[in-house]
Every structure is written in C-alpha cells, then in structure tokens.
C-alpha cells in the first residue's frame, strides 16, 4: 500500500480529465498534480478552430498518457481506478490500494451507455462508447445481415449514415429522425438527401415563416469501467465494412419502442425484437443508442447532491455540494442557474469547457483568487456533422423552454443548406445551420446582443441581402 500527497487530483482520462490537467499545467505548473486513469491511452484535443467567439471546432485524438508529462513537469500518472473517496479526510483510495491525499479533486469519470431495459437478455444487444465496443460492432457488421438500431440521437444518426451492406431497421419513438439535434424540417431536409444522395438538382431556395408551438419542436434533453468515450469521427471505422450477404436497405419505424428482446440461436435470425407497435423484427443484433448515464462507479464517505439525471450536481464553478470536490464532463450535472441561451447536453465541447472552468476554480481555491464563470456558458453551441453535412446548433435552436410564443424563420435549399432561426419578440434565440451557410458568427452576435430584428422582417434570411453588413 502506498501513500501520495498532491495539491491537485484528477480522476479520468477522457476529454474532461485531460483538459483539466492541461489547464492546470498552464495555471500552476509548480504544484503537484496526480491523474488517475484506468487506461494508458487518454483523449486530447487538437486543431482547435474558432468559427466565432464561442463556436469552436476541434479534433479529438487518442494519445499515450505519458505524453502529458511533457506539458506538466509535476504530473504523476497512476494507471488505476478510483475505488473510494473520503471527502472529510480529503483522501482517495484506488483499486490497487494507493492512498492519495489531495487539496482539491476533480471527478471526470464520464458516462456509460444507458441501454434498453432488455439488454441483459442477450449479448447481441450492443452499446457504443469506446474503442472496444466499436470493435465488437465492426465484427458483428462483417457477418450481419440485418440490424436494429434503437434511439434517435447522435450515435443512431451516425450509424445509419455510415453503415452499408446491411439491412437496417431504425426504431425511433419520435415522428421524425435525429430528434436530439434537429427539428422535423431539418429531418425532412436530410431524408431528401437519402433519396437523392447523388442528385444535386432542383436547388430552389424556400423561405418560410412559421409560428410553432413548443410541443411541435421540443428538443429532447438528454437524460464497467472502460476507456474514454469516442471522438467525433468514430463512425468512419464503419464506413468501409460491408456484409457479404446483406443488402443496403433502411426501414424507419416511427413512434415505437422496444418491448422485449429474445435470443434464440436456432432461428435464422437469432434475435427477435418485439416493438410496442406490435411489429416483430428478426435480426442478427441490436444497437441500443439510447443515451448515456453519468458514471459514478466508486464509493464515498458522504455522497454529494445529484442532478435529476443522476450526475454530480455542480455549481457554476464546477464544484459539487462537497467543498474541494469538483466534477466536469459527462459525470457532472450542471445545477447552476443557466444563462438564457445555454443548457447542458453531454458533448465533448461541454466536457472541455466544464473541465477548463473546473481547473480555473481549483486553482483559484488553492491560490485564494476570485474566479468568474467562463464566457462560453453564455451560449449553447455545438458544431458537428450529420449525414455528411456540417451542422451548427446555437442557443435555443429547437425553441427549448421558450413556451409557445415564438416564431420560426426557415430558409432551405434542397441538398445544399437548411437554416432555421428561432425568434422571440423579434430577437434571435437560437439557430440551426446545416451546410456551409457562413452565418454562424452573425447568429452568435445576434443572440448574444439580443438585437431587435423586427425591422428586417423576413429579409433576415433573404440570400440576396447581407444582413451582417447592417451590424458591422
Ligand atoms: C460514439 C460516440 C460518439 C460521440 N460523438 C460526439 C461528437 O461527435 N461530438 C460531441 O460533442 N460529442 C460526442 N460524443 C460525446 C462525447 O464523447 C462525450 O460527451 C465526452 O467524451 C465526455 O468526456 P468525459 O471526459 O466526460 O468522459 P469519458 O470520455 O467517458 O472519459 C471518462 C474517463 O474516466 C475513466 N474512469 C471512469 N471511472 C473511473 C474510475 N473510477 N477511476 C479512474 N478512471 C475512471 C474512464 O475510463 C474514461 O477514461 C460521442 C460519444 C460517443 C459514445
Ligand atoms: N455528432 C454528435 O454530436 C454526437 C454526439 N453524441 C453524444 O454521445 C452521447 C451518446 O449518444 P446517444 O446514445 O445517441 O444519445 P443521445 O442522448 O444523443 O440520444 C438518445 C436517444 O435515445 C432515445 N431513447 C432513450 N431511451 C430510449 C428507449 N428506452 N427506447 C427508445 N429510445 C430511447 C432518446 O429519446 P428521448 O430524447 O425521447 O429520450 C434519444 O433519441 C450523447 O451525449 C450524445 O450527445 C454521440 C454521437 C454523435
């Protein structure tokens, strides 16, 4: 049994943990820092590009944990798992029996896939989280003829887009696809591209104004220790895998859920999936892409407050209800009063932002300095790719929490772009920008500054009028 003393202790080698280490390396290189990580490979971020003040795009890579020692001379890495935390004595105990005395700790233990309830009935029900789970999926894809995909968020959308040579039955409980990130209009835009993947004609620009009720377009707020969650391009690994026997075919089953799953290896298709709409689907395996749950997989002397989603509730400085215990990333639940245009979604952008904030606050605690919450929490931004298109989501992009009293302005050019503005009292509250729209910086300014756009009417989205010229 060994004993270690450190000023800073970080648990977890995902984006949150590594960002926390990197930030502390800059803020306080002379102090001791310990990283407890179960895996020798950790996640880091490169090629950071700012599309605007708060809209950031970056690559996520896997790297040897030892490479972090180059940036922090006083970093000690322990390849182990946190087993017990004594917050009173400020002592952590690992699986291998190492005791770590700390001044401040940041828990960055991420999340695990939340699988459908019948998942225990069969090893043919898979969740996707880390490299190991993708390998399992790749293996099943090679020989599979038909798969069922359950869930309507990021992972399901990427799998449907990236896989070929296998029959796909996509079971969603909404009446349109990719509901976590987009609205029914954008879903229609993407489905058109499924139909004419290679045709880029009929490119008529359509401009529409709608009054939507909240129910029409509410976004869903999302609700075994392995390696860190995958990065944004994980599905590229699936693109070139073709089944020997399968055919390319996609069936979408709307407004349905899985009622039960039964494995019978004597059948032609070993998995029988009973849906709530009475449909029975036989398949080789099922992907449960049904969200994440925070991973608090160790014991405490005193459990801190939890958020509704089971995550560790943190304030605006990422501190839990227990002093000197901070948390960031998927394991944390943002429990402070949010700015009007920000909300939590478990994304790598937010894992990075939370961890940067936690590091600043931990440093402030040690050095007795006051810290302010970072500007990035003023505006929800997410930059991603869906079905091959660049997608930028800003603010209350689906009218989240705006009640029924808001307007939607749409401009769409089939196969090229889909632009949606959410306006309340003539001011921009959120936007969905699909394609190379070049509108992100303008939208960011319009949301943050709450400029009254009513004098412009529908011209805000008129492609012949450069609205940003008015604000330069
Ligand atoms: C398939 C997939 C695709 C995704 N694509 C995107 C995307 O395109 N864009 C996007 O923004 N987000 C995406 N995400 C979400 C994003 O990956 C996560 O929000 C983000 O990685 C969370 O980072 P984290 O550091 O909090 O957690 P994790 O990456 O889960 O890291 C947690 C780390 O803690 C370690 N750990 C856990 N328990 C312990 C313990 N007791 N002791 C020591 N170590 C422990 C784990 O081994 C792991 O290394 C995707 C997620 C998945 C699964
Ligand atoms: N491009 C990107 O930005 C990507 C981001 N990610 C992130 O990775 C994490 C995991 O992704 P993912 O698993 O897709 O999670 P998401 O939270 O994105 O989506 C989960 C989906 O599953 C649905 N669901 C939940 N439970 C059930 C159930 N029992 N039966 C049927 N449907 C159900 C949810 O519906 P409902 O909303 O109604 O609860 C939702 O549509 C998320 O944090 C996600 O944001 C992942 C891939 C890509």
Automatic annotation (TrEMBL):
Coiled-coil positions: none
| Xref: Pfam families | Pyr_redox_2
Origin: domain of life: Eukaryota
What Gene3D superfamilies does this protein map onto?
3.30.390.30, FAD/NAD(P)-binding domain (3.50.50.60)
Membrane-spanning regions, if any? none
What keywords were assigned to this record? FAD, Flavoprotein
Q: Name one GO molecular function term.
A: oxidoreductase activity
Signal peptide annotation: none
**Would the keyword Membrane turn up in this protein's UniProt record?**
no
Named cofactor requirement(s): FAD
**Span of domain FAD/NAD(P)-binding:** 8-355
Entry similarity comment = Belongs to the class-I pyridine nucleotide-disulfide oxidoreductase family. PYROXD1 subfamily.
Q: What is this protein called?
A: Pyridine nucleotide-disulfide oxidoreductase domain-containing protein 1
Species, as recorded? Bombyx mandarina
């Amino acid at each position: 049994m060994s004993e270690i003393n450190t000023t800073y202790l970080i648990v977890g080698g995902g984006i949150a943990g590594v960002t926390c280490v990197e930030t502390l390396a800059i803020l306080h290189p002379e102090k001791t820092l310990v990283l407890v990580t179960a895996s020798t490979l950790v996640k880091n971020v490169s090629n950071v590009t700012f599309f605007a003040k708060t809209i950031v795009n970056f690559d996520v890579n896997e790297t040897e944990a030892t490479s972090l020692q180059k940036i922090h001379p006083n970093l000690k890495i322990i390849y182990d798992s946190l087993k017990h935390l004594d917050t009173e004595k400020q002592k952590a105990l690992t699986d291998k029996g190492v005791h770590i005395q700390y001044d401040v700790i940041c828990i960055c233990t991420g999340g695990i896939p939340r699988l459908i309830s019948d998942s225990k009935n069969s090893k043919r029900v898979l969740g996707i989280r880390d490299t190991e789970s993708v390998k399992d999926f790749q293996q099943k894809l090679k020989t599979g003829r038909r798969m069922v995909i359950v869930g309507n968020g990021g992972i399901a959308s990427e799998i449907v887009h990236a896989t070929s040579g296998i029959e796909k039955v996509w079971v969603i409980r909404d009446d349109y696809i990719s509901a976590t990130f987009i609205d029914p209009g954008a879903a229609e835009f993407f489905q058109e591209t499924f139909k004419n993947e290679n045709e880029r004609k009929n490119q008529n620009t359509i401009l529409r104004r709608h009054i939507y009720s909240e129910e029409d377009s509410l976004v869903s707020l999302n609700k075994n220790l392995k390696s860190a969650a995958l990065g944004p391009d994980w599905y590229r690994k699936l693109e070139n895998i073709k089944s020997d026997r399968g055919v390319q075919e996609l069936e979408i089953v709307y407004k349905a859920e899985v009622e039960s799953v039964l494995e019978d290896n004597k059948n032609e298709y070993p998995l029988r999936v009973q849906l709530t709409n009475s449909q029975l689907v036989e398949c080789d395996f099922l992907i449960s892409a049904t969200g994440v749950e925070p991973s608090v997989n160790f014991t405490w002397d005193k459990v801190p407050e939890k958020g509704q989603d089971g995550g560790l509730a943190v304030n605006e400085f990422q501190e839990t209800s227990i002093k000197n215990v901070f948390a960031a990333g998927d394991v944390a639940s943002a429990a402070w009063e949010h700015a009007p245009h920000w909300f939590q979604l478990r994304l790598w952008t937010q894992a990075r932002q939370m961890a940067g904030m936690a590091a600043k606050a931990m440093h402030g605690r040690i050095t007795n300095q006051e810290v302010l919450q970072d500007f990035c929490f003023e505006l929800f931004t997410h930059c991603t790719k869906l079905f091959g298109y660049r997608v930028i989501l800003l603010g209350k992009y689906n009218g989240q929490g705006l009640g029924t009293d808001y307007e939607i302005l749409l401009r769409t050019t089939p196969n090229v772009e889909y632009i949606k503005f959410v306006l309340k009292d003539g001011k921009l509250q959120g936007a969905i920008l699909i394609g190379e729209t070049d509108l992100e910086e303008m939208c960011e300014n319009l949301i943050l500054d709450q400029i009254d756009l009513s004098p412009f009417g529908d011209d805000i989205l008129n492609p012949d009028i450069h609205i940003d010229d008015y604000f330069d």
